Amino acid sequence: MNLIILDTETSDLDPNKGAKLLEIAWIELGHTGQMWQQISFGDYYIEHKETITINPHAQACHHITADMLQEGKGARPRYDVLRTLLNLIEPSTLLVAHNAEFDAKFLPEIVSPWICTFRSAKHIWPGAPGYSNQVLRYWLKLQPDLPFGKHPHQALYDVTVTVSILLKMLEQHTPEKLLMLSKTPVRLKTINFGKHRGQDFSQLPPDYLAWLRRQPNLDADLVHTLDTILKP
After folding, report:
1. Which long-range contacts (CB under 8 A, 24 or more apart) does 32-41 make?
2. Band of pLDDT at residue 7, cut at 50, 70 and 90
3. What share of the chain in percent tops pLDDT 70?
4. Which domains does the chain carry?
5. What is the pTM assigned to this prediction?
6. Nearest-CA neighbor of 104 among 182, 219, 1?
7. What is residue 12's DSSP assignment?
8. Which of 68, 105, 213, 221 could be joined to 186 by an S-S link, Cβ 3.0–4.6 Å?
């Protein structure tokens, strides 16, 4: 089995509304029989010959500009980069990302299962102060071997941090267990929206919880939390 941990940077949030893949990086891990070790890595800007609009909020995070996405600056065609990545994927390969649901939307060619370190962390470390890459990195006192000259929200930097989080998880959990946790709803502790923001779900008024459960388009974690509290 090999694990391919990846990160993407994009022009906006939704590929169905025109958002484009701008940068991708991955680190491939293989198991030697005793430990996981890096086998290969990739780090690419995606070429865009046409004019591309980058959401300023996204740009404020990753600092990618249109001129960086030209062939003359080293950017590669999307199909070329994806071919390189797909050639690494075996029948037993698991993909890994921090918020895998987001990255997978921009890589529909990949049909392998995804481990989400963001969701898995919520199960494994329910007392963490937060679940972003950087919060977990410092809370767990990890020391990733960060790539020289890269900064947070560049794909290779972020994927290196994700690898360190994943390796910490793999000390106690198999990849198969992490895959299961990635698909399992999380019991939320506090509500993060509305007039009760920051309060423990168990302390919210029953009539409010019942009203909230009737609302449309709730995410799976919120539904699971409400159903757990409201069950007879």
Report:
1. 36/3, 36/167, 36/170, 38/163, 39/2, 40/88, 41/156
2. very high
3. 100
4. 2-183 (3.30.420.10), 186-232 (no CATH)
5. 0.92
6. 182
7. S
8. 221
pLDDT band at 176 (very low <50, low <70, confident <90, very high): very high
- In percent, the amount of the chain with pLDDT more than 90 equals 91
Find the mean pLDDT for residues 87-105: 97
Distance CA(37)–CA(66), nearest Å, equals: 35
Residue 232 has pLDDT above 80, yes or no: no
Q: Which one-letter amino acid corresponds to residue 226?
A: L
Q: Which helix (H) or strand (E) element contains residue 217?
A: none
Residue listed under structure tokens 């290969």? 40
For residue 78, give every residue at least 6 positions away whose Cβ sits within 8 Å of its Cβ, in sequence order, or none: 21, 46, 47
* CA-closest candidate to residue 184, choices 100, 119, 124: 119
Rounded Cα–Cα distance for residues 77 and 80 (Å): 5
Other C-beta atoms within 10 Å of 11: how many?
23
Contacts of 35 (CB under 8 A, 6+ apart): none
87-113 b/e with 16+ CB inside 10 Å = b?
Answer: eebeeeebbbbbbbebbbbbbeebeeb
Of 1, 10, 47, give the one whose Cα is nearest residue 154. 10
